């Protein structure tokens, strides 16, 4: 069943996120992970869109290949950064011609070295504008980003929820969260979003943890919080033990989300699918995604 049909039925989806690599070794890793993705019978995969430069063309090339050569239902990310409406239209047209079923419509982060998002003079200021444009002009399933612990530029989560509702009203079919580790923060966000009228399915973006060292980076990227049991479980363990604990934590986090009606699990693979595959295998052993 296509994932766009599964979501409204309340059947949880399973998906992976990839990015276009910059080096030949990176492409090797990615292709191994894509082979793994095929074996996992995922509902879809997604490919991120860079802040600028040649990786953007690689996203378009890669999505065409994953969709049409590997047969993986693919969601292409697209951002407003540095693009006029006309350019965005041409990109969307090309994605449509390649039969890409879904777009993750984003404003995007500023390119490296710039601290603020600059609106292109002929472009869009917010994801909501891009979502509305796609809805009016194309037939894609539209995904949007959401932030259980607040977007870094947002004064508070209530404001973010209001923009998530606007994303829904403009045409988003579902949302995927920023990475988070504290399920209680997510449930709080989801309850408040529902109270504010958000009805679209919200898929959890889950990052497999490999080490204690990574947590600082995750926090600076996303502003997420870490439950004590995650920090304590990683402390006083060697590298291999930390990676094992991270997988067990991921399995338990996803199982709890699935028990509490999550719309789907989207694993941020960072192009290395081993940990994500172990999490899925652990979930299948517990009776999920069978
Ligand atoms: C699932 C997911 C996938 C992502 N993939 C990518 C990717 O491929 N490439 C990439 O560069 N980045 C990606 N990002 C990061 C994302 O681009 C950044 O978080 C970016 O800063 C915000 O994008 P957005 O689409 O949420 O923007 P917006 O929804 O436009 O939000 C940006 C800020 O503006 C505020 N805001 C939103 N709408 C309005 C409005 N209508 N009026 C006024 N203020 C508003 C929000 O509160 C927020 O503070 C992803 C994030 C997530 C969660």
Describe the structure.
The chain is an alpha/beta fold. Helix content is 47%, strand content 14%. It has helices spanning 3-9, 24-39, 55-68, 85-97, 127-137, 157-170, 183-195, 214-222, 228-234, 239-259, 274-285, and strands at 13-18, 44-47, 74-79, 102-106, 141-146, 174-177, 202-206, 264-268. It has an 8-stranded parallel beta barrel with strand order 1-2-3-4-5-6-7-8, surrounded by 5 helices. Helix 5 (127-137) links the parallel strand 4 (102-106) and strand 5 (141-146). The model has no long low-confidence stretch (mean pLDDT 95). The structure holds flavin-adenine dinucleotide (FAD).
Largest sheet: spatial strand order: 1-2-3-4-5-6-7-8
How would the global form be characterised? Answer: globular
The helix tally amounts to: 11
Q: How would you classify the helix and strand content by structural class?
A: alpha/beta
**What's the helix-strand series?**
HEHEHEHEHEHEHEHHHEH
Rg measurement, Å: 18 Å
| Residue windows where pLDDT falls under 50 for at least 5 positions | none
| Beta strand count | 8
* Biggest sheet overview: 8 strands, parallel, barrel
Bound molecules: flavin-adenine dinucleotide
Helix content: 40-55%
Name the average pLDDT. Answer: 95
Q: Termini, distance in Å?
A: 14 Å
- What quaternary form is this? single chain
Measured by DSSP, the beta-strand proportion falls in 5-15%
List keywords for this structure.
alpha/beta; binds flavin-adenine dinucleotide; 8-stranded parallel barrel; single chain; globular; 290 residues
Task: Describe the structure concisely for a colleague.
With 290 residues, this protein is α/β, with parallel strands linked by helices. It has helices spanning 3-9, 24-39, 55-68, 85-97, 127-137, 157-170, 183-195, 214-222, 228-234, 239-259, 274-285, and strands at 13-18, 44-47, 74-79, 102-106, 141-146, 174-177, 202-206, 264-268. An 8-stranded parallel beta barrel has the order 1-2-3-4-5-6-7-8, surrounded by 5 helices.
């Amino acid at each position: 069943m296509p994932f766009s049909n599964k979501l409204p039925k309340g059947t949880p989806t399973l998906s992976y996120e990839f990015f276009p690599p910059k080096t030949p070794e990176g492409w090797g890793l990615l292709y191994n992970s894509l082979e793994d993705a095929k074996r996992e019978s995922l509902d879809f995969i997604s490919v991120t869109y860079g802040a600028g430069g040649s990786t953007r063309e690689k996203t378009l090339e890669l999505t065409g290949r994953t969709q049409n050569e590997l047969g993986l239902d693919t969601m292409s990310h697209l951002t407003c950064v540095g693009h006029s409406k006309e350019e965005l239209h041409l990109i969307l047209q090309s994605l449509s011609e390649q039969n890409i079923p879904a777009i993750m419509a984003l404003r995007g982060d500023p390119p490296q070295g710039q601290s603020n998002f600059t609106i292109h003079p002929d472009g869009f200021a917010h994801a909501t504008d891009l979502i509305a444009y796609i809805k009016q002009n194309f037939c894609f399933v539209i995904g949007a980003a959401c932030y259980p612990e607040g977007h870094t530029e947002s004064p508070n989560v209530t404001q973010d929820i209001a923009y998530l509702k606007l994303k829904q009203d403009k045409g988003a079919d579902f949302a995927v969260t920023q990475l988070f580790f504290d399920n209680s923060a997510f449930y709080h966000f989801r309850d408040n979003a529902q109270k504010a009228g958000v009805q679209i399915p919200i898929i959890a973006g889950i990052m497999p943890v490999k080490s204690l060292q990574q947590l600082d980076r995750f926090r600076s990227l996303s502003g997420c919080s870490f439950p004590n049991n995650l920090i304590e479980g990683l402390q006083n363990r060697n590298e291999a033990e930390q990676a094992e604990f991270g997988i067990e934590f991921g399995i338990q986090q996803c199982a709890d989300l699935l028990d509490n009606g999550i719309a789907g699990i989207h694993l941020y693979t960072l192009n290395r699918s081993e940990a994500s595959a172990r999490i899925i295998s652990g979930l299948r052993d517990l009776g999920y995604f069978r």
